[in-house]
Amino acid sequence: xxxxxxxxxxxxxxxxxxxxxxxxxxxxxxxxxxxxxxxxxxxxxxxxxxxxxxxxxxxxxxxxxxxxxxxxxxxxxxxxxxxxxxxxxxxxxxxxxxxxxxxxxxxxxxxxxxxxxxxxxxxxxxxxxxxxxxxxxxxxxxxxxxxxxxxxxxxxxxxxxxxxxxxxxxxxxxxxxxxxxxxxxxxxxxxxxxxxxxxxxxxxxxxxxxxxxxxxxxxxxxxxxxxxxxxxxxxxxxxxxxxxxxxxxxxxxxxxxxxxxxxxxxxxxxxxxxxxxxxxxxx
Length: 283
Prior knowledge:
Helix content: 40-55%
Radius of gyration: 27 Å
Number of domains: 3
Shape: flat
Number of strands: 11
Strand content: 5-15%
């Protein structure tokens, strides 16, 4: 199955996509079970018995294949692909999938997976759901943080600790801003020369000069660098001041002020806030 180019559930016949009946039946099962609110790990166990070639091997890869399948709209008939499922089934499955897009421990609030990353390779994290000790790992095969990861209780504890610290002392979020710089390019010099030349041509064409000045102003604006660090820092501080004291992880707060929750190694995480400030647990 390595290097497969034809989407799962289809085959080519006379230059057209047609259903591969055995695989199409698996696709129907995946969507119907998701529509019934089954988890990818549960679905995997069922479909693995139906198609051992495609879903055997690494369980993490197989679960990813199930999740990836659920994102493909062509299964309900689009473009050159015949429909395997109905649009209603697709929409219901996607809704259920979205509702559980954050895997989290019982009694814990959510951290969006898309706001997590690995410090080693930059890959997104995932939560290993098939172990007694829930572990957050890097999704990149071969990365050291995929082999080790960090226990979920410790992961949440460190995130919560950093958030509590910055709420108690907002100065921890302060970050030196880069000065605004103006670095003109050759086009700016040419635009300036054009305006000067137009001012010396008789009769003076006021409308043409006005257009050249507006054009020159736009060029100069593009040559300026603007650092929004100061404003972003104040926005984050204001959000923290207005929210209730932090005793648990609020997913809405995470979305508002955090850019990335970063896994450093099996013992440490850090948080990069939206103003670019990074704070490491215990550091």
